[in-house]
Design goal:
heterodimer, A: mainly alpha, two-stranded antiparallel ribbon, globular, B: mainly alpha, ABC transporter involved in vitamin B12 uptake, BtuC, 13 helices, 2 strands, about 70% helix
Amino acid sequence: MNVQAASLPRCFRHEALLLVLLAAALLSLAWQSDRFLTADNLLNQARLMTEVSLIAIGMTFVIVSGGIDLSVGSIFGLVAISMGVLWQSCGLPLPLAMFLAIAAGGMAGWLNGFVVTRFGVPSLIATLATLILYRGLAEGISQGRSVRGYPEWFLQLAQGDLFWAPHQFWLLTTCAVVATLILGWTTFGRATYAIGANETATWFSGIDTRCTKVWIYTASGLLSAMAAVIFVSRVSTTRSDMGTGMELEAITAVVLGGTSIFGGRGTVVGTVLGLALIQALKNGLSLAGVKSDGVIVVIGLVLIFTSIISNLCSHDEGRS
Amino acid sequence: MTSSTERQAPDVGTCTVSDATPGAHGRNETTLRRAGIREQFGRWRQQFVLVGTIATLFIVVGTINPMFLSGSNITNIFASNAYIAIAAIGMSLIIICGHIDVSVGALIGVLAMVSGWLAVEEYPTWLAWVAPVVIGVIVNAFIGTLVAYGRIPSIIVTLGMLSILKGGLISVTGGAWLSNLPPDFLIAQFQLFGVPSTVWFMVALTLATAVWMHWSFLGRAFYAVGSNAEAAQIVGIQTAPTVVMAFAIHGGFAGVATVLFATQMQVIQATVPVNLELAIIASAVVGGVSILGGRGLVVGATLAAILFATINSSLIFLDVSAYWLRATQAVLILGAVLADIASRRKVR
C-alpha cells in the first residue's frame, strides 16, 4: 500500500544510521575494556535490558498510533506490588497471583485506552493522570511494606538459563519477532500506522480506530505487567516505587529507534536497535569506569544528536 | 448552537475547530454577539470551575474540621505550591505555543544547586537569586533553538535535556546536600504584611503575565503560533523566534520558581521531588491550557496549583491514610479532566 511504500525506505535510512552508531559504540567500547565483547557479558545484557525492552515494544505501537503512554512505569509498580501482596498477604498460590497481577496490568492499560477513546482525552493527559493514579494505588496497596522471600522456582524464571542463554533472551527475541510481524504484516499493524498518520481518514476508511487503540493500550499495559513480573523475579524483592521513570527510558529508546513522535512512522526493529545502543552504552561506559549518572548524560546527548542527524538526512521533512 | 462548525466526523480527540471563529457567514448580529459572550464565558469557565472547587473544598473540609480554616493553614496552602504555580505559568506559555517541556523538574534541581552553591560560597545574595533566572533563560533558549530551528519535536529535546540535566547534577554533586545556607538568602521565608513572599511572587507574576499575554504582541503571537503555525507565518508572525522567546521566558519562570523552591528549607538536596515536571504540566492542563496548543489562560494554571495544594491539605485534615493520599489526588485530577472535557463538548 501507499503508506508502506512511502514509509519503509525512510525508516530503514534511520535504522542504517543506528546500526552504524551501534557498531561504532561496540567497537570503541570493546577497545576500552577487554571484558565488554565477550559472549557472557553480552548475553547478560539481554537479562538486564528485557524489562525496559518489553515496555518499549508496547510503547512503539502506542507512539506509532500517534499517542503516548506515560503510565507504563506506574503499571509496572502496581503489578509488582499487587503480585507480592496477593501472594504473601492474601495467601493465594503464586502462579494465580502472577496471573491476576498481569490481568490487573492489562485492565490498567485498557482503562487508559478507554479514557483516551471514549472521552477523547489527549493520551498525554490521560496517561499523565493514570501515572499518578496507578502509582498511588501501588502505594496504597503496599502500605509502605516490601515483599520478599519468593520461592526458588519463581526466582529461576528470570535468573535461570535455557540452553546457553538467559530465559529473557528467548522471551525478548520472541516478543520482538512477533511484534515486528504484527506491526508490519497484519491488518492490525497497518491500521496502527494509518491511525497515526490520519485518524479521521482511517475512521472513514472503515477501520474501527477506537477498538484498535483500546487494544494497543491494553497490550502496552500487559507488556509492562510481564516486565514487572520478570523484574521481581530477577531482583527477588517487591516495592511500590519500582519502575519510577521507566516511561521516559522506554520513550527514549523508541524515539531513538526512529519512531516519529507524531505517529504514523516507526518500526520495532528500530526500537530494538535503539534499546541495544542504550544498553551497550550503559554497560560499556560502566566497564570503562563511568558512573551510571554520567551514562544518563550520554544517553541524553545521543538522543538529541540522533534526532538532529536524522532530521538532516531526511529531505522531505515538512511537519513541525 | 454553532452548528456550522460542528464536525460531522466521529470525535477522535484531535483538532478542535477554533472557538474564535463561530462561522461568520449567514449570521445576524445578535447571534454573533451572543456567540461572543458565550466565547468570553467559555474562556473564563475553567477559572470559575477551579475557584468554585477550591471554595467548596474550603467550606466542606472547614465544616468537618475547623482547624482547616486556621490562618496558618490557609497561608500554608497558598505558600506551599507557589513555586509550582510559577513554573506552571511558564509551562502554560510553552503549551499554548503547541510545545511541551518535560525537563523543567531537572532544570529546577540544577538551578537550585547553582543558587545554593553561590549563596554558600558567600557570593552576593542578589547574584544567588538572579543567576538561576539567567541560566534558566539561557538553557531554555538553547532548547527553544533546537526545537524551532533544528525542527526536533520539543518532547524529544526536553527528554534528552532531562537525562543530561539529571545525570549531570548527580555526577557533579555526587548527591551531596547543601546546608549552612545564609539566613538572608532564604527569600521564601520572608514575609510582607504577614503574607509569605512566595505568595506575593505568585500573585504578582500571575497577574502580570495574564495582562501581558492578553495585550502584548508577543502574547498574542504565542496563541497564534500554537493554534495554527502556518497561518501565523502567513500573517507575518515569525514563528521560530516566537517559539524561542516562549522557551526563554519559560526558563526565566523556572528560575524564579527555583529560587522560591530552594529557599523554602534550610538545606538544598541534589534531587527534586519525583515527578515535579508532571505536577507542573498537570497544573497547566487542569488550569485549562489545551495540550493541543493555542488555548488557555495562565490564571488557570495558578488556580490549579492552589487547588492541588488545597486537595493535599484537605486529605490530611480529613485523616486520609498517607498511603492512599496520592491515589485520592489522582482520582480527583482525573475526575477534573474528564468533567472538563465532557462539559467542553456540551458547550461546543
